[in-house]
Amino acid sequence: MASVIEEDINLDEVVENGEDEVEAVEEGETKDPAKKKKKKKKKKKTENDAPIENNSEVTDAAEKVVSLSVDETPGEGDEKKKKKKKNKNKSGKGPSKEQTNPPTIPIAELYSNGNYPEGQIMDHGPAEGIDERTAKERFSSEEKRALDRLHQDIYQEIRHAAEAHRQTRKYIRDWIKPGMTMIQICEELESTARRLIGEDGLKAGLAFPTGCSRNHCAAHYTPNTGDKTVLEYDDVVKIDFGTHINGRIIDCAFTLTFNPRYDPLVKGVQEATEAGIKASGVDVRLCDVGAAVQEVMESHEVELDGQIYQVKPIRNLNGHSIGPYRIHAGKTVPIVKGGETTRMEENEFYAIETFGSTGRGQVHDDMDCSHYMKNFDQQFVPLRLQSSKQLFNLINKNFGTLAFCKRWLERAGASRYVLALKDLCDKGVVDAYPPLCDIKGCYTAQFEHTILLRPTCKEVISRGDDY
């Protein structure tokens, strides 16, 4: 997108010229030759006169020259200054407004020109058979740059969603405190994200329910109505939520702790995620990303209650590719050695997420289910129950193929839906995603970023100042 070139008057240059004229006046000269001659004549007439003791007339003249040079006419300078200030964001380099605290202004209003901040730009990780030089040449390739320009509308949509995610989590990370209920935390986060993303049906909103899994529970837990679980000081909680614009999804997560004894666990998982991001890129094999993640994560250990635990990657949890309105688009990114030899490709979106555990390093279904999602590939299935038909219509209207939870069904107006939801799951129209847990008593951590493999570079879209 071309920048708007500003053509405002350069005030510094004008003032500089004005200062030159001031100096000229003080020395009894001006830059105008005609005026200079007049000045000389005047000087001859007053050669024998007494010297002027008071220089105030010259000073006033000098001030007048500066004033007229800058302002031209009274009041005109103020208008130009205001105009310059008003137009300073036409280039699209920053927000046109300042966000409130807590955040309430939609991101679309903050960036009214539609030019949203880029994520972190990195070169594509050198793949097997492709040297680092070839990967870096993509930056300067005119062909790749042209391909980049073809997809700017998509890039702006995903950056819009990313900025909403960044500002939401920045506020929530400082706001969450021990003693709050998990429902209170989720509702505050979701209401903030909805405001910032400018929720608009399936065009803009939340991409999936807020995960707030604690301790041995690694993923897919969000409280159902009536859940009275309270966040404790010694909890290790994974905050995993998503935003989207026109189905372009940001999937991004972080681990929050209050007791510093868990810092080595959190650090190990975060560094493993960074290793996965660094290893990713066009033509990179998915299994090579997993190997890089495992090597870094297993190099960390944590001491809890006098016992040393190696940080283990949870081998049956993976990162994944992301498609429009589809959180899991088909490719999986392992976090251990082995796995798919499939290669990453241009213009693919990936969630690079890693999970570390002090337990077995393997999860299983446990606890009450809260997460559900319509089966993306399911063909038409006849529904006999009227309640199932009504619930299915509500799901299609409000969520489409995006994930949802029981709280969101109730928010959308569903009531007495339990049997209908079970019927949809039994028929394979909707899939249930129960909480995933390691052994009780262990602790798990998670970090995740969404990356975009642009033709020219790798963009970590969800990158923020926090992680």
UniProtKB/TrEMBL annotation:
Recorded catalytic activity of this chain's protein: Release of N-terminal amino acids, preferentially methionine, from peptides and arylamides
Domain Peptidase M24: 157-354
Signal peptide positions (record): none
Skewed-composition ranges (Basic residues): 34-45, 81-91
Binding, a divalent metal cation 2: 251, 320, 353, 448
Gene Ontology annotations of biological process type: proteolysis
Annotated source species: Arctia plantaginis
Main localization (coarse): cytoplasm
Protein name as annotated: Methionine aminopeptidase 2
Xref: NCBIfam families: met_pdase_II
PANTHER family tied to this protein: METHIONINE AMINOPEPTIDASE 2
UniProt record similarity statement: Belongs to the peptidase M24A family. Methionine aminopeptidase eukaryotic type 2 subfamily.
Xref: InterPro entries: Creatinase/aminopeptidase-like, Met_Aminopeptidase_Type2, Pept_M24, Pept_M24_MAP, Pept_M24A_MAP2, Pept_M24A_MAP2_BS, WH-like_DNA-bd_sf, WH_DNA-bd_sf
